[in-house]
Amino acid sequence: LEISSLGEKDILVLRLDLTDRSSHEAATNSVLKHFGKIDVLINNGGRSQRSLFVDTNLDVYSAIMELNYLGTISLTKHVLNHMIQRKRGKIVTVSSVMGIMGAPLASGYCASKHALQGFFNSLRTELTDYPEISIINICPGPVQSKIIHNVFTENLAKSLENTGDQSHKMPTDRCVRLTLVSTANDLKEAWVSDQPYLAVCYLWQYAPTWAWWLMNRMGKKRIQNFKSGVVSLFR
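RESULT FIELD:
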């Protein structure tokens, strides 16, 4: 549809709390009642992290997994039931390059994204009887967004003081366009990132020993920057 042709009946906005899993079935039913079907689910809710594990309360890790992982698969479960009945649909999950590598100051965030990668890659293998249902994982690198303003820190009550400059990150509209292209072409996994971050992804995939060496060197500097209040140049 052209944007100009969209009418009031073509748009439905619902408030949704991913951590309130008991509300996900009703939200799914509201969408189905309004539109009659769900063609695409884009899982894009989540929070990042900036804190060292040794300084971080465990309830922060619980909250990260509750939001980024359990909330996502809860909503997916209700929508997937409908897609299985129709035998078609696309489930697009915004993971992260942190779902295929590790990085300091983001151990909980990385864990949640690794969990999503493992879950959806496994789910795909359970849907071989439904070839028209696509499971698509999008792994963005650093992208201009508000995510840095809402990161988890050492405890649930603390916010990040210095969010830094985002001009070096991929523009939001380019990330969206590449996500849509990946969705339209049913890519199982897409790494959406500029260089040099994309090259680091390839290192983790094909030369992990070199990746560990590089991340140890970069990570040490990143931790030093974090402790001195300087925001480093990678996510």
